[in-house]
Design goal:
- About 15% of the residues lie in helices and about 40% in strands.
- It is mainly beta and about 290 residues long.
- The chain has one domain: Jelly Rolls (Sandwich).
- Strands 1, 4, 5, 9, 14, 15, 16 and 18 form an 8-stranded antiparallel β-sheet that branches.
- Strand 14 and strand 15 form a beta hairpin.
- The radius of gyration is 24 Å and the shape is globular.
């Protein structure tokens, strides 16, 4: 009887302790507020938010000049091609012999917009819903940049794509970790859901880290301690938003090794551009901050 009582006592204590162990508290969810949003529903560029960039210089051995033109910055309406309420479309255009305002010559023109001096922020989550055309040498990007001289200003590459449909990459640039930065990573997609489909590309920015997520899935994190192994952590200052579509250049070349007909750009992709098929569609852009 003593043994039976002891067994009952042990069982009672065990089950009581077990219940205590599995009981958990709910993690509080911080409320967030939207501080920037554009779903491009107006069918034209909202110039109170965005500025088209016009350039006349060669950067990263890219092949395009950026212009302010409806040829390269256009819009879809409604739910065309899976958009929610219209979409921004950035498209490179083959334009042999195009001359910039300073007399430089390019064979391609394309679109680039940013929120510099119109919207910037420090800490929060920046997201965009995007889909792109595949093709060796296409180089669309969704990123952020700080004010001042590069790379001390800090650069946050939320999404870069150089034409291979099964992956996109994120990267971080700063003093002594720029260019061939050690902070770069890829996320690979299935063939059924590659980058030619809609995806949400995001970064969660805190005082201590940058966490990149694609479709809500963490794919890459850089923290302050990691960066300070190389140089200063400069991600404490305001950054603005950028969307652009580059053509050819160093990054695509280092992936595809193509030299002709253009540096980093294949003949097949050139044909796609000439046919008006190459594009980056942006359904919406949003920035939120936590209330704390």
């Amino acid at each position: 009887m003593y043994c039976k009582y002891l067994l009952v006592l042990i069982f009672t204590v065990y089950t009581s302790v077990g219940y205590t162990q599995v009981k958990s508290k709910r993690t509080p969810v911080l409320a967030s507020r939207t501080i920037f949003f554009d779903d491009f529903a107006k069918g034209k560029l909202d110039r109170s938010k965005w500025t088209p960039v016009v350039t006349g210089m060669h950067v990263n051995d890219e092949l395009q000049a950026y212009v302010d033109s409806g040829k390269v910055i256009s819009f879809t309406k409604g739910n065309a091609e899976g958009a929610t309420n219209g979409a921004l479309v950035l498209s490179p255009v083959y334009s042999p012999g195009f001359k910039t305002f300073d007399g430089q010559q390019f064979d391609f023109i394309s679109g680039r917009i940013n929120t510099k001096d119109k919207f910037d922020f420090t800490y929060g989550t920046a997201s965009a819903r995007i889909k792109m055309t595949a093709g060796d040498g296409l180089w669309p990007a969704w990123w952020m940049l700080g004010y001042g001289n590069w790379p001390d200003c800090g650069e946050t590459d939320i999404m870069e794509f150089v034409g291979e449909a099964d992956w996109a990459s994120a990267a971080v640039h700063g003093p002594h970790y720029s260019g061939e930065t050690p902070f770069v990573n890829r996320m690979y997609f299935s063939r059924e859901n590659d980058v030619t489909h809609w995806h949400v590309y995001s970064v969660e920015w805190t005082p201590q880290s940058l966490l990149f997520k694609y479709d809500g899935v963490p794919m890459f994190r850089v923290n302050k301690a990691m960066a300070e192994h190389y140089g200063n952590w400069v991600f404490t200052n305001k950054q603005y938003l950028i969307l652009n579509f580059a053509v050819g250049g160093v990054y695509p070349f280092k992936v595809n090794g193509i030299k002709k007909p253009y540096f980093g750009l294949s003949q097949k992709t050139l044909d796609s551009i000439r046919a008006g098929k190459a594009k980056m569609m942006v359904d919406w852009v949003k920035v939120t901050q936590n209330d704390n």
